[in-house]
Write a structure and sequence with these properties.
By secondary structure, the protein is α/β, with parallel strands linked by helices. 38% of the residues lie in helices and 26% in strands. The longest helix has 14 residues, at 8-21.
């Protein structure tokens, strides 16, 4: 069994976006690490997942700077680094996520010098927003419930570079239009929506 640490409160919030990343044909030299992490989160009686044509693999290269909002165990930022991202900034409102994410990064073979994890409320903590930075990220990921995605959407455009993408998942179909509205209000253009069963992943871009 894998040593990758996962916490039940974050499993459901990270599973969907993990599947988004892991589509057929990964060519990363750390493919085995990625698939191991993937298999851990498929283990057990977990929810159905979404496969998106606009996976992180499509957007991430060796120059990509990634932000993971609501990182939980760090799964998305860790996968991003395994895919070759230049660096990743992860944040979660739960301070316990810091230790867990760093431990999981080490277990997954990630260069932790490229990884920074902190805690706080990205929605209204100006100091944290300043720490995250502005016009800095090629990819922002968030795999959280729709209410939180709607709440954090207004801060995402300031974080993204022009042409950067926001991949939001963990959304149930009944809340899809709410997320569309939130993205539209903050000036992000939806470029792809993927669904499976009741789950939705929405990719938008800062033009």
């Amino acid at each position: 069994m894998s040593k990758f640490k996962k916490s039940l409160p974050v499993v459901l919030s990270i599973l969907i976006a993990l599947i988004i990343i892991l589509i057929t044909g990964l060519s990363s030299p750390k493919k085995d690490n990625i698939e191991e992490v993937y298999n851990v989160y498929l283990d057990g009686k977990l929810v159905g997942a979404v496969k998106s044509k606009d996976s992180l693999e499509k957007y991430i290269d060796e120059n990509s700077v990634v932000a993971d909002l609501g990182c939980g165990s760090g799964i998305l930022s860790i996968i991003s680094l395994l895919l070759g991202a230049k660096s990743a900034f992860a944040v979660d409102i739960d301070a316990n996520a810091i230790k867990t994410a760093y431990e999981n990064a080490e277990l997954s073979g990630v260069d932790v010098s490229k990884y920074y994890v902190t805690s706080g409320n990205v929605i209204d903590d100006k100091k944290l927003q300043d720490e995250i930075g502005y016009d800095k990220y090629d990819v922002v990921v968030a795999n959280i419930i729709a209410d939180v995605i709607c709440a954090i959407s207004p801060v995402v455009p300031a974080q993204l570079k022009k042409g950067g993408v926001f991949i939001a998942s963990g959304i149930i179909k009944d809340r899809m239009n709410d997320v569309y509205d939130a993205l539209d209000k903050c000036g992000l253009k939806v470029v792809n929506t993927s669904t499976k069963d009741e789950w939705v992943c929405i990719t938008s871009i800062k033009e």
